[in-house]
Amino acid sequence: MNRWLVVLGAVIIQINLGAVYAWSLFNQPLMDKFGWDREAIVLTFSITIATFALMTILAGKLQDKIGPRWVATTGGILLGLGLLLSSQATTITQLYLFYGVIGGAGIGMTYVCPLSACVKWFPEKRGLISGIAVAGFGLGGLIFQPIIRFFIENFGVSSTFMYVGAIYLVFVVAGAQLLKNPPIKMDMKGKEGHVALEESTHFSSKEMVKTYPFYLLWFMFLFGSMSGLMVISFAVDIGVEVVQLDVEKAVNAVMVIALFNAAGRIILGNISDRFGRVNTLMFIYGITAVTLLYMSIGYMNYPLFLGTVSVIGFCFGGFLSLFPSITADYYGTKNMGSNYGLMYQAYGVSAFAGPFIVKVFPFGQAFIVASLFCMLAMLMAKAVTAPVKIKEPTVYREEVINEK
């Protein structure tokens, strides 16, 4: 099998999963149709992300046992079903259940499968391939924006759920059919038939959580994602309140961030293959910290505003491409799905932690807090070393033989 077909399937899947980031397009139409509060509607997105992150643990374990194809297929069906049911929702509770829980579960079931399959097929360029795989997720919201707008304007918000749900169902299930684990081990040059030195030791999830590098990496992932999401989630508000831009100009930041986010996943992933994961992580934490400190000053015009949010988006993309790769590097690929599912919970927590900081502090102080977390992550990176399995003590049973 041509291993690039696996990458094609991964990109198709991730573009459709990434459309979840276009949720803000539904806010006003749902308010207009049902009269629900904006905060209540936005909670749907938070429920979706939380369910998505939690479901990656189960999905990772399943795909490690039965392979990525059927797990991703099930996820595509759940995602499509959740959206189709959402088209019939008449209460906010139904929307939470259909879109947030069922749809979010579908995303979580599918997300880990392309990543796990890709890193197994490309051990010699894990950073680049992980970056390509997750770049589709970053671009999904941007690609689907005009599609969702077209359906809302022409068919209404409820019918839009039905149409895009059908699109997700078809393309995710189709992409899942291209996912497959390599039949034999691949060496570090991508050749078949040899077992790489790094592949000789595989950690189970239980073994992974007994190693201290896992906790260092988990909190590093949390701090980086939290800092990025804090800026990405409030990019328009930062433009309006801090830079004093009108909304029309501030909205352009969303498109710029999406493009640099996708580029960062590919470029920084490729750089990590050449210069090492930890070195690349230290570099992007440093760039993020300096950029956030500059943003805390508040002295920005329109070009500088776009420049700073672009840097944050670029580095944020790097976090999401490097942590799948470093998980495979340190803990092997045999249990990649379940291991990265646990690692990915840091991202799920960051989806709430970043916005929480902004609610507690004004933007200027929030940027300083996030910058300090990135500096702490740089120090933590210096302490990251290759994990060592903890051997369980051997218990011997003594049998006493009574001779008569």
Automatic annotation (TrEMBL):
SUPFAM superfamilies for this protein: MFS general substrate transporter
Main location: membrane
Gene Ontology molecular-function annotations: transmembrane transporter activity
Domain Major facilitator superfamily (MFS) profile: 2-389
Protein's cellular compartments: Cell membrane
Keywords: Membrane, Transmembrane, Transmembrane helix, Transport
Membrane topology of this protein: Multi-pass membrane protein
PROSITE patterns the UniProt entry points to: MFS (PS50850)
Gene Ontology cellular-component terms listed: plasma membrane
Gene3D superfamilies named in the record: MFS general substrate transporter like domains (1.20.1250.20)
Segments passing through the bilayer: 40-58, 70-90, 96-115, 127-148, 160-179, 214-238, 250-268, 280-299, 305-328, 340-357, 363-381
InterPro entries the UniProt entry points to: MFS (IPR011701), MFS_dom (IPR020846), MFS_trans_sf (IPR036259), Proton-linked_MCT (IPR050327)
Name of this protein: OFA family MFS transporter
Species name: Salipaludibacillus agaradhaerens
